[in-house]
Amino acid sequence: MEKVRRAVNEIAYARNPRKLCRLHRSLIPLLSIASSLYKLALSLRHSLYRHGFFPVHRLPVAVVSVGNLSWGGNGKTPMVEFIARWLCHFGISPLILSRGYAGGDEVNMLRRHLLWTPTKFGVGANRAAVASQFIQRYGYVDTRESSWYRKQQLGHELNVSVDSENIGAVVLDDAMQVMPTIAPTKERYRKVISFATFFLFIEHWSLWRDLDIVMVNGLTLWGNLQLLPLGPLREPLTALKRADAVVIHHADLVSENILKDIESTIRGIKESIPLFFSKMDPTYLFEVGNTNANIPLTALHKATILCVSAIGSAESFVKKIQKMGACYVDRVDFSDHHAFHVKDIELIRAKLKELEGKFGSKPIVVITEKDYDRDPEILKQLYPFKTFVVCSTLMVMSYKGSTEDSFKNFLKDHLRLKFPAEN
Q1: Cis peptide before 363 (omega within 30 of 0)
Q2: 140 neighbors 60 (Cβ within 8 angstroms)
Q3: Please, which residues have CB within 8 angstroms of residue 94's CB and are 6 or more apart in sequence?
Q4: Cβ atoms of 278 and 75 closer than 8 Å
Q5: Phi, psi of 172, deg, nearest 5
Q6: pLDDT tens digits along 14-66
Q7: Tens digits of per-residue pLDDT, 388-417?
Q8: Global pTM value
């Protein structure tokens, strides 16, 4: 299955399909059929929502959606954390809603990062129902009546205590993307039609959103511009018309010309949309088995490193590690959300022994937090090789007039428009 996923990924991001190997080219007709069915199902369901056949639920609190149009590596979960911390800072208790896809590695990471905040987590495919359950359990507070709103009216930005355990806002993680990639095996092919039917009833637009933020991976963008599984798009680029803002992620890892091209493409779809730029800043390391030990990034200086990851954008992860002064950096990549098995550990150990023989010293394994939170225990089997987890924080970059402050002001202004003062 891992080989199939790699093949799908290579096809989706191939610049010239003619240069693909014969096996990969043979998969294209099958993927094209599945992609056409997907497009039909997407169009039908969108029409059903537009004409009121499916209900759209409004919550009594602000709903902020963070999503993307393509699979993996767009910085959605770090942005969700950024917004949740910002809400907590102003006295709003947020509820993060996630589907918990692939074992909930992203939710586990968010829980660990936001442990000492009043953030709550709801996991489930029907997020409208999950949100309602949490609001019934904890109650809610209208942000117009909270200390956050009063502080905005006074023009202050002081750290205030949370008003209560009542939910004051909802943040949707992964709200624009629809479904994971269909693996193009014969068994999967027989299930394509049933998938398309089932797809129509998956929660996607069932919650009203007050703010739609779309994340774009500046390193990989939109591949061949085809809908999945032929391409990486879960929706056509025209879906950007529904967005209130676009954030170009990993903007520090791409050239100025590429950023201009991305901006031009987005402006061609929605000219007035606000654009922001973000990056991931590594902050510290911890060793597998000891999350409390903050190890400085200098521990990787002049070391032989093996980057192991099962994330949407392995390239950005490796590029960051390469900038940390390592002697040599190698990599083993798996598909996004891949759960490590014993055979994977054996493959990684074989690579480590190869590097040890080549350089005469034990290499260090470096993984992402997302990979750690998927299954911390199995990674202990890499002993006696050290396995470090790199911890990173999303930063909104200063670029072309956009800054972290302007992004926060955008959030504030948008929420003020939705919640005007009442006398």
Answers
A1: no
A2: yes
A3: 83, 84, 87, 88, 118, 119, 120, 167, 168, 169, 170, 171
A4: yes
A5: -95, 120
A6: 888 888 898 889 999 999 999 999 999 888 888 888 888 888 889 999 999 99
A7: 999 999 999 999 999 999 999 999 888 763
A8: 0.87
